[in-house]
Amino acid sequence: MPKVHITETVLRDGHQSLIATRMRTEDMLPICPKLDKVGFWSLEVWGGATFDACLRFLKEDPWERLRVLRKALPNTRLQMLLRGQNLLGYRHYSDDVVRAFVARAADNGIDVFRIFDALNDTRNLRTAIEAVKQNGKHAQGAISYTTSPVHGIPQFIAMAREMEAMGCDSIAIKDMAGLLTPTATTELVEALVAAVKLPIAVHSHATAGLASMCQLKGIEHGAVHIDTAISAFAGGTSHPPTESMVAALRGTDYDTGLDLALLQEIGFYFHEVRKKYHQYESEYTGIDTRVQINQVPGGMISNLSNQLREQGALGRMNEVLSEIPRVREDLGYPPLVTPTSQIVGTQAVLNVLTGARYKNITNEVKFYLQGRYGKAPGTVNSMVRQQAIGNEEIIECRPADLLRPELDNLRDQAGALAHCEEDILTFAMFPEVGREFLEQREKGELKPEPLEPLPSENSHISAAPTEFNVTMHGETYHIKVTGTGHKNRQQRPFYITVDGQPEEVNVEILEELFSEVNDAAPVKNGNSKRPRATRQGHVTTSMPAAIVEVMVKEGDEVKAGTPLLVTEAMKMESEIQAPVSGKVVAVHVVKGDRVTPDEALVEIE
């Protein structure tokens, strides 16, 4: 029997699952010589949410990260996670962009491309698989594993056969939410081994506490690859510990041949590194069998908790987790993996925070219901579709067939900010965030979000209370601090609830205290003088968000339902429409502003 091959995920999925994808390259490089010495089949180092996090939070060039890791890991295959026609963004890209991205990723150091589609629509995989093979790299087709009334072994087997016919070199069962059980793994692996001639990999998150058992069953029934994470970044919503699986298989026919003592040294290193990112730890990253019902994947759960905290609504996590399966059913049971996990999750948050289901529908949900992401696995809720897109025509073909080549246009849009093809692709993945990154790079202003120091054991300063009552003018209000934003030279946001209602408070830092504050750029377009929303003609947002686009100006005549603004929250965009017909008498926002639900953004009379 062949030995089992291990893909180590600590440099990508491990920290994406447990610390919201915040590990910096500077903390990866010191341990690379030992990682390179282990003899992993591959190291997953790129793709998934790492590209976005590098630009948005860490202010690192993701392409440069890949290049330095390639240099630091000369003897190990480097692997990435690619979302098929979505690449690493949240929309479908034209075929010329897909081919260019794969070519540049391969040239910069990726050896293995794990390629999946959020809907398991194989039409969305073909171009990426072809591009990987044209560049002489390993194409691993992935089945997004899920359970629903419309999913089962026959559908997964048919998909595996299609991917084999497309030229894939291996097949991965991508159990992103930890839904596999030992019995289900046995049945699926046996069926795949009988149906295709390709090596089978088992990727399963440990959220429900079952992943290590599932991997063992998979190995016993023919799987030859498993994904693990070094122990310091294992368990919970991450993967089974590398050291544990190596120990479990040692001395058997499936012995990995890896040095357990060396792995333990690596684990001790990352144990210390993880402390540095304590502010991103989430209480929702332990064992949680609720995933068997809500199906929220590992990488999403820590990000979701951070995002809810920023909205001042972390206490409503359970409501959101209960709403997610209902939204998923309405959308025809898509597997919950990027980008559909964000699409379903953000809509569930909106449904909970607005107090009315589908009162506010994100643009991505509208696109999904129109068919721009591909074919839904099941039947969508016709009433929700009607509410979202009316009588718009549904796309039946492969969505990318409707896209014209766009690389030249993207090159023009990026302009002088793009110094190379990689910069153009960065701009393509995230136009707003990418442009901001390139602009800051040009000005020499790239500064990562600050890391909060660990509390000192010798500190005698007591922590401020996070829940208290405030009495003003005879009225008592219950205040609960649910989270804080990052301080800069001007202010720091605090997310609180006042008698249960979410609010955002910006605390201004006085000039004489500037020297004690992290040296970061001022808040962009800060505006604390917007009027409070008090009447129907005051246009508001459903949750704290950023203004992406302003579509009207003072003096415009609008009808109820006219699009006025586009906002972005939790990486998803929403269109804000006019609540009444009338004349726009004031616009209180510009692109880039941060806004809260109690503010009047536009006034209509």
Describe what this molecule looks like in 3D:
It is a single chain. With 605 residues, the protein is an alpha/beta fold. The protein has 20 helices and 20 strands. The strands form 4 sheets. Strands 1-2-3-4-5-6-7-8 form an 8-stranded parallel β-barrel, surrounded by 6 helices. Strand 5 (138-144), helix 7 (153-166) and strand 6 (170-175) form a beta-alpha-beta unit. The longest helix is centred in the middle third of the chain and has 17 residues, at 260-276. It starts with a strand and ends with a strand.
Radius of gyration, in angstroms, nearest whole number: 24 Å
Give the percentage of residues in beta strands.
Answer: 15-25%
Helix-residue proportion? 25-40%
Question: What is the terminal separation in angstroms?
Answer: 76 Å
Please tell me the overall pLDDT: 89
Spatially, the strands of the biggest sheet line up as: 1-2-3-4-5-6-7-8
- What gross morphology would you assign? globular
Q: Compute the number of strand runs.
A: 20
SS class = alpha/beta
Tally the helices.
20
**Poorly predicted spans:** 510-527
Largest sheet: 8 strands, parallel, barrel
Question: Which key terms come to mind for this protein?
Answer:
605 residues; alpha/beta; eight-stranded parallel β-barrel; four-stranded antiparallel sheet; 20 helices; 20 strands
Short overview:
With 605 residues, the protein is an alpha/beta fold.
Produce the secondary structure layout.
Elements: E1 5-8, H1 10-18, H2 32-38, E2 42-47, H3 50-58, H4 62-72, E3 78-82, H5 95-108, E4 112-115, H6 126-134, E5 138-144, H7 153-166, E6 170-175, H8 182-195, E7 200-204, H9 211-220, E8 225-228, H10 242-249, H11 260-276, H12 291-294, H13 298-310, H14 317-330, H15 340-354, H16 363-370, H17 382-389, H18 407-414, H19 421-429, H20 431-443, E9 467-472, E10 475-484, E11 491-498, E12 501-508, E13 538-539, E14 545-550, E15 557-558, E16 563-569, E17 572-577, E18 582-587, E19 594-595, E20 602-604
Parallel strand pairs: 1-2, 1-8, 2-3, 3-4, 4-5, 5-6, 6-7, 7-8
Antiparallel strand pairs: 9-10, 10-11, 11-12, 13-20, 14-16, 14-19, 15-18, 16-17, 18-20
Helix pairs in contact: 1-13, 5-6, 5-19, 7-8, 8-9, 10-11, 14-15, 18-19, 19-20
